[in-house]
Amino acid sequence: MNVDLRALIFDMDGVIADTLELHHRAWKQLAHEEGITFTAEQYRQMQGLARRQSLDIFLNGYALSEEQAQAWMARKNNYFLHLLNSFTPADCKPGAQALVNEARKAGLRIGLGSSSQNAHRVLELLELTPAFEVIADGNTVHKNKPAPDIFLWVAGQLGVQPSQAVVFEDSEAGLQAALAGGFWTVGVGDEHGGGAHWVVKSLTEVTLDELRKRLAG
After folding, report:
1. Domain that residue 50 falls in
2. Cα(41)–Cα(39) distance, rounded to whole angstroms?
3. 11 among known catalytic residues
């Protein structure tokens, strides 16, 4: 795959922000209050998905009215936002800020494509909002991951083609979205799923020089 590198596009939860445990705790609180079994495998399946898709996995066939579903999602989000109050720039994932800064200095465009409706708030708490030229969240496109729409939208707003951008993702759904959109991908962490062009434990392993070598290989 020939990549004329002009932009980097990042997922947020688990790639830029260390928020996955906060989401897990919020879902666990809701499960405890409602007497619902909630497993680690269910939470793994939620990674990268939008709020309603995550609720469907959480319910595992348990029937709710639409009014109840909206109320449960609101409760879970309130639990998450309460936990998020303690967030600081120290909760940025290792290597993320350094890579973003290096890319900006090199003249690359920087975008964020997250399924989270709280993306702007999280970036604000990390003091990273100015680093991203384009920010897409769970409200931006109609079809969220694993559909490619969010990454295609970010690329379009950045003025680049998929063949000119690299997507950094930690979830199977996110990687499916990026690959479906024609992007070169970096899978971050242990739970990213298969198919990434390059897999790293964390962004501390990624430099622009190394990335360009991989793209040329």
Report:
1. 20-84
2. 5
3. yes
